[in-house]
């Protein structure tokens, strides 16, 4: 194969990753770090042997239609690949890889941070102090809801869902999950998790809901008005997966009418735009797509991208190849 493949990277990556890429490949970096628009995406898929996109690049069928013979590998920086049209890639014999495993713990930590922040009103408390409006302690001030003993319903019990379950048990949460496939009995027993064959049934029975499934045509707006109305009024919804899994307008409406108690959101339907109503609700904690944003995680993601490119360059099947119909 190509000795020094042309690798176009759409965003700035950790310095050590960029340096290593420059040693190994004919790498072209995007120094200004602005997300690629359609024209720059098309330019990249025409000129690169390997394109390294991130979640901010919409490598859709229209973009891939412009790819010539040269592009052979899309080595995504990130585990979620809903921004890449796998069918269009396969039609053109372009291999797609992602970075599973290395951001599991960080994302699960973010889930726990949000599970703790929303019911215990961390962000509200912060705001009161910074505004200078804290009048001092009172027995009835800033009361939230206890975590221990509540039921957590995890939607999607893959790597991240299981890492959430492990952490949740340490906080005394009872773990419930909905996944199309039930976990092997030994894994399920190890996590002390209860499987629900239907999402609807689980939603009516849990106190906290955490979304940990990929965004696919099947999970698009999985949490819509109907699903939100199945949840009890005291439920907190946590989303660190993909914004598009939730109908954000329906969520804002549910929160406004107190149909559910609160939400902790790391991802949004139209990033970086956020539904205006969410900004004004006190019972919502908002963080800007930070689930995997650790120095260690980003380095490991970069290492995986490099490993995938190298194995492909050597003529083998890259370790993290994503197949069409993977979900
Ligand atoms: C990244 C993510 O921040 O890996 C994913 O799917 O959402 C995050 O880890 C980002 O998407 C990387 O492209």
Automatic annotation (TrEMBL):
Keywords: NAD, Oxidoreductase. CDD domains: GDH. The keyword Cell membrane does not apply. InterPro entries: D-isomer_2-hydroxyacid_DH, D-isomer_2_OHA_DH_cat_dom, D-isomer_DH_CS1, D-isomer_DH_NAD-bd, NAD(P)-bd_dom_sf. GO terms for molecular function: glyoxylate reductase (NADPH) activity; hydroxypyruvate reductase [NAD(P)H] activity; NAD binding. It holds the Pfam family 2-Hacid_dh_C. GO terms for cellular component: cytosol. Residues 112-291 form the D-isomer specific 2-hydroxyacid dehydrogenase NAD-binding domain. PROSITE patterns: D_2_HYDROXYACID_DH_1 (PS00065). Residues 17-322 form the D-isomer specific 2-hydroxyacid dehydrogenase catalytic domain. The keyword Phosphoprotein does not apply. Belongs to the D-isomer specific 2-hydroxyacid dehydrogenase family. PANTHER family: 2-HYDROXYACID DEHYDROGENASE-RELATED, GLYOXYLATE_HYDROXYPYRUVATE REDUCTASE B. This is D-glycerate dehydrogenase.
């Amino acid at each position: 194969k190509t000795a020094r493949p042309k690798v176009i990277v759409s965003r700035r990556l950790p310095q050590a990753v960029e340096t290593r890429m420059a040693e190994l490949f004919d790498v072209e970096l995007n120094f200004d770090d602005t997300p690629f628009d359609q024209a720059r995406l098309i330019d990249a898929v025409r000129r690169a042997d390997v394109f390294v996109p991130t979640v901010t690049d919409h490598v859709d069928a229209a973009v891939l239609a412009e790819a010539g013979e040269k592009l052979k590998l899309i080595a995504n920086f990130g585990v979620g690949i809903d921004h890449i049209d796998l069918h269009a890639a396969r039609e053109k014999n372009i291999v797609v890889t992602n970075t599973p495993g290395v951001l599991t713990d960080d994302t699960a930590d973010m889930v726990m941070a949000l599970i703790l922040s929303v019911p215990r009103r961390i962000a509200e408390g912060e705001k009161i102090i910074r505004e200078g409006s804290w009048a001092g302690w009172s027995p009835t001030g800033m009361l939230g809801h206890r975590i221990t003993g509540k039921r957590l319903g995890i939607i999607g019990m893959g790597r991240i869902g299981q890492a959430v379950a492990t952490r949740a048990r340490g906080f005394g949460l009872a773990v419930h999950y909905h996944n199309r496939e039930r976990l092997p009995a030994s894994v399920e027993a190890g996590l002390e998790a209860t499987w629900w064959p239907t999402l609807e049934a689980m939603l009516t029975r849990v106190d906290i809901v955490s979304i940990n499934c990929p965004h696919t045509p099947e999970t698009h707006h999985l949490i819509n008005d109907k699903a939100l109305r199945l949840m009890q009024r005291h439920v907190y919804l946590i989303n660190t997966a993909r914004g598009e899994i939730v109908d954000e307008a329906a969520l804002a409406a549910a929160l406004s009418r107190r149909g559910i108690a609160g939400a902790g959101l790391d991802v949004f339907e139209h990033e970086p735009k956020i539904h205006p109503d969410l900004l004004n609700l006190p019972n919502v904690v908002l963080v800007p797509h930070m689930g995997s944003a650790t120095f260690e995680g980003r380095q490991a993601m970069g290492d995986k991208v490099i490993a995938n490119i190298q194995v492909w360059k050597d003529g083998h099947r890259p370790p993290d190849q994503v197949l069409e119909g993977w979900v």
